[in-house]
């Protein structure tokens, strides 16, 4: 006959010792599935996914009802993502987004839409409010910035609005803003 202590006498040590085998099993399965690795020097940069920004934006230019721009970003920026969504409701419209990884490793993205500034800001930024402006060349950008959140810049290019956001420093925002305003709309 084995001894089993009453449940009322179990404490955190019993829980700790019973979880150790479960954690070891999870680590073994993750290792076998090649879903984790160990680096004695800390985390390393993973491979950046390939994204064909030219093909994506050319397709958007053919199908979306507003001018699409493909900015000439620095050669060491890597396009890694893109999406097409739609803002519903008054002032909404289709949205085209492309993301880049800068040479410093920061993620920057820009979103183009024929939605109003208010609808685009609410769709991408939630409840944030404009907090200032930036003048980049001849273009005025409305800045949305609050502590604990990535900053965002929005500008009106006539038939479309462009929103920039990301983890980059002001220089990355300025570089992307200059490239966007210098870019001519793609021919559908």
Description:
It comes from Nocardia iowensis. Keywords: Membrane, Transmembrane, Transmembrane helix. This is DUF4245 domain-containing protein. The chain crosses the membrane at residues 15-33. With 188 residues, this protein is α+β, with helices and mostly antiparallel strands. Strands 1-2-3-7-6-5-4 form a 7-stranded antiparallel sheet, sandwiched between helices. The relative contact order is 0.14. It has helices spanning 12-32, 53-63, 117-125, 170-182, and strands at 78-87, 93-101, 107-113, 132-136, 139-144, 152-156, 161-166. The chain has a domain at 53-182: 2-Layer Sandwich (Phosphorylase Kinase, domain 1), CATH 3.30.200. A hairpin with a 5-residue loop joins strand 1 and strand 2. The termini are far apart. Helices cover 29% and strands 26% of the residues. It contains 4 helices and 7 strands, in the order H-H-E-E-E-H-E-E-E-E-H. It is elongated and about 85 Å long.
Name the features:
188 residues, alpha+beta, Phosphorylase Kinase, domain 1, 7-stranded antiparallel β-sheet, 4 helices, elongated, transmembrane helix, membrane
As a whole number of angstroms, the C-alpha radius of gyration is 24 Å
CATH topological fold name of the domain at 53-182: Phosphorylase Kinase, domain 1
| Class of secondary structure makeup | alpha+beta
Arrangement of strands in the largest sheet: 1-2-3-7-6-5-4
Based on Cα principal axes, name the global outline.
elongated
The tally of strands reads 7
CATH architecture of the domain at 53-182: 2-Layer Sandwich
Q: How many angstroms separate the termini?
A: 82 Å
Q: Which residues form runs of ≥5 with pLDDT under 50?
A: none
- Helical content (DSSP H or I, runs of 4+): 25-40%
Number of H- or I-type helical stretches? 4
Mean pLDDT: 90
Q: Which class of the domain at 53-182 in CATH terms?
A: Alpha Beta
């Amino acid at each position: 006959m084995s001894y089993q202590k009453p449940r009322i006498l179990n404490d955190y040590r019993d829980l700790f010792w019973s979880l150790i085998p479960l954690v070891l099993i999870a680590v073994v399965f993750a290792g076998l599935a090649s879903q984790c690795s160990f680096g004695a020097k800390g985390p390393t940069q993973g491979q950046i996914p390939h994204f064909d920004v030219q093909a994506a934006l050319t397709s958007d230019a053919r199908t979306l009802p507003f001018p699409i721009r493909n900015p000439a970003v620095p050669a060491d920026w890597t396009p890694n993502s893109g999406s097409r969504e739609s803002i519903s409701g008054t002032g909404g419209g289709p949205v085209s987004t492309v993301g880049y990884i800068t040479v410093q490793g920061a993620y920057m993205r820009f979103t183009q839409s024929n939605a109003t500034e208010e609808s685009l800001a609410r769709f991408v930024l939630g409840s944030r409010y404009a907090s200032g402006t930036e003048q980049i060349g001849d273009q005025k950008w409305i800045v949305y910035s609050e502590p604990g959140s990535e900053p965002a810049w929005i500008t009106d290019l006539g038939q479309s609005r462009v929103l920039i956001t990301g983890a980059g420093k002001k220089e990355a925002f300025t570089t992307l803003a200059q490239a966007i305003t210098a870019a001519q709309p793609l021919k559908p």
